[in-house]
Amino acid sequence: MSIYDVLAADHREVIGLLKKAEKAEGETRQTLLNTIIDALSAHALAEGEVLYDQLEDASDDVHELIMEAHEEHLSAARLMKELLDPQVNDERRLAKTTLLREQIEHHVEEEEGEMFTKARKLINAEAAEALAGEFLAKKELLMARPVAARIDEAIATEEALARGGAPKKSTRPMNGMKAAAAPR
């Protein structure tokens, strides 16, 4: 399986769970949201570190897609933090759940469409499979950490990028890239 297959499977799972959470009420909704937030917070951090860092310097248009994806991750992380707040009433929790689903659906549409299409032109099949393994390993490590810490890390990382901070550059060699990165 490639990185694209693994990410798409995660996307489908989270969107399906969000739809269930929208139909649920009270404790059932919160239990589903806890599951979603646990998976989504690890997914977003691992995705950024494994795929986005790999593509960061590919070209200006890919860079723009990556920056937009980081902004979407920041918005999702903030919503996840709000959804974990026990002070939020069920009516507001439903509204926030719907907003999170809509944002994730938008993010997935762009990522699986335009970003994956461009990434497939840059990353060969062997490297895409290796990235899938790296993503799964990173996600597993992240899942061992408390969810609140993951969300705080995601918010801090994305806010630093939004202020113009340099993204964490991958220490991986760019093996598997089909073409040299265009200078920006």
Structural notes for this entry:
This protein has helices spanning 3-23, 26-55, 60-83, 90-122, 125-143, 147-162. The chain has 184 residues and is mainly alpha-helical. The protein has one domain (3-162): Four Helix Bundle (Hemerythrin (Met), subunit A). Helix 1 (3-23) crosses helix 5 and helix 2 (26-55) runs antiparallel to helix 3.
Descriptive labels:
mainly alpha, 6 helices, 0% strand, globular
Write the layout of secondary structure elements.
Layout: H1 3-23, H2 26-55, H3 60-83, H4 90-122, H5 125-143, H6 147-162
Helix pairs in contact: 1-2, 1-4, 1-5, 2-3, 2-4, 2-5, 2-6, 3-4, 3-6
Q: State the share of residues found in helices, binned by percent.
A: over 70%
CATH structural architecture: Up-down Bundle
Q: Tally the helices.
A: 6
Mean pLDDT: 89
* CATH class term: Mainly Alpha
CATH fold naming: Four Helix Bundle (Hemerythrin (Met), subunit A)
Total domain count = 1
The rough form would be described as: globular
Distance between the termini: 31 Å
Secondary structure: number of strands: 0
Order of helices and strands: HHHHHH
- Rg computed from alpha carbons, rounded to a whole number of angstroms: 16 Å
Q: What summary fits the major beta sheet?
A: none
The chain-level structural class is mainly alpha
Low-pLDDT ranges: 168-175, 179-184
Q: What is the beta-strand fraction? A: under 5%
